[in-house]
Automatic annotation (TrEMBL):
Record's cofactor remark: Binds 2 magnesium ions per subunit.
UniProt gene name: fbp
Residues binding Mg(2+) 1, per UniProt: E94, D115, L117
UniProt domain Fructose-1-6-bisphosphatase class 1 C-terminal: residue ranges: 202-336
Name of the protein described by the UniProt record: Fructose-1,6-bisphosphatase class 1
Lineage top rank: taxon: Bacteria
Location(s), subcellular: Cytoplasm
Keywords in alphabetical order: Carbohydrate metabolism, Cytoplasm, Hydrolase, Magnesium, Metal-binding
Pfam families (UniProt xref): FBPase, FBPase_C
InterPro entries, alphabetized: FBPase_C_dom, FBPase_class-1, FBPase_N, FBPtase, Fructose_bisphosphatase_AS
Enzyme class: hydrolase
Lineage: Bacteria, Pseudomonadati, Thermodesulfobacteriota, Desulfobulbia, Desulfobulbales
Length: 339
């Protein structure tokens, strides 16, 4: 059935469930619960300035970073909603050191990993932030899920997506297998997400590159050579690329997905505490990689490995990320394989 702009996200999820006769409706249920959590978080993000809850809560999270109040709120909302939805058996969050169990009797057949509010340094300054999620089918057979259920490769995700809280709130998700990547915009007056970006494909050629260039003195040589190459690639005297870097992964990724771009968070020579870059594999890189690939783009590490093929060893594992338009990530692959 062709996708009609304006249909609700619930209708779209149900329609796509019908094209999978083996589906039991549980993934539909899980996504619907996540969407409710997203609406609650979106409302809170919009009210945050007025309600006076901007600013840091003073605690530090497991990454040693300061937790801000909205991060806390988003984390609590997602956990409460999902621990008793009956569709997941275990969860992992950027804000929680260990795995998050679900309530007794509510164990389902999926796992959920999430970054409740990514881009937290931007909260106080009204810049877009987002929630990222990744869903796997459980492997273990007991009641509660196990860590090993969460530590699965990105290629085994059954759904992935993000919600960006920007000039409007937009949900982008995919269930893979050629079902496509779809974007829905929240109409806050009726509390519904409506299909606004059906069948998103990422432009093959990038307009933008996105990287924190302040760290360039610490880059490895192949990263420097690649970025220099992008800067030198002038076609007929025209400038080829512009630099755009927000510092909110979801916002940088979303812009590049719609307009064409490559985002990099490479390793550097300085960060001895973060030898694999800053971003997290399970709830940042892998879900965005699934979306990028499903939309026709690519996602690799800065040593040329496909993100979706990486076997996770740790819930909060970090990974260097190069993601976006196919031409530019393929070029990066050549540079990084050389390195
Ligand atoms: P966070 O999860 O603590 O918000 O950190 C992740 C964010 C990403 O959204 C963004 O891409 C990156 O940190 C920016 O880091 P930097 O300021 O080092 O460029
Ligand atoms: Mg994050």
């Amino acid at each position: 059935m062709p996708k009609r702009k304006g249909i609700t996200v619930s209708r779209q999820i149900m329609d796509s469930q019908q094209t999978h006769p083996e589906a039991t409706g549980e993934l539909t249920g899980l996504l619907s619960e996540l969407i409710v959590a997203a609406k609650i978080i979106s409302a809170e993000v919009n009210m945050a300035g007025l309600a006076g809850i901007l600013g840091q809560s003073g605690k530090t999270n497991v990454q040693g970073e300061e937790v801000q109040k909205l991060d806390d709120f988003a984390n609590r909302t997602l956990k409460r909603r999902m621990e008793q939805c009956g569709y997941v058996c275990i969860m992992g969050s950027e804000e929680d050191d260990g795995v998050i169990p679900v309530l007794d009797g509510y164990e389902g057949k999926y796992t959920l990993a999430f970054d409740p509010l990514d881009g937290s340094s931007n909260i106080d300054v009204n810049v877009s932030i987002g929630t990222i999620f990744s869903v796997h089918r459980r492997k273990s057979e007991g009641k509660q899920g196990e860590m090993s259920d969460l530590l699965q490769k990105g290629s085994e995700q059954v759904a992935a997506g993000y919600i960006i809280y920007g000039s409007s709130t937009v949900l982008v998700y995919t269930t893979g297998h050629g079902d496509g990547v779809h974007g829905f915009t929240l109409d806050p007056s009726v509390g519904e997400f409506f299909l606004s970006h059906p069948d998103i494909t990422i432009p093959e050629k990038a307009k933008y590159y996105s990287v924190n260039e302040a760290y360039s003195r610490y880059w490895h040589d192949d990263t420097t050579a690649y970025i220099d190459k992008l800067k030198d690639m002038d076609e007929q005297g025209e400038r080829s690329y512009s630099l755009r870097y927000i510092g909110s992964l979801v916002a940088d990724f979303h812009r590049n997905l719609i307009q064409g771009g490559v985002f990099l968070y490479p390793r550097d020579k300085k960060s001895t505490d973060k030898p694999d870059g800053k971003l997290r594999l399970l709830y940042e890189a892998a879900p965005l990689a699934m979306i990028a690939e499903e939309a026709g783009g690519m996602a690799i590490t800065d040593d040329g490995r496909r993100i979706l093929d990486i076997e996770p060893k740790d819930l909060h594992q970090r990974v260097a990320l190069v993601i976006g338009s196919r031409d530019e990530v393929a070029l990066a692959e050549e540079y990084f394989k050389k390195g």
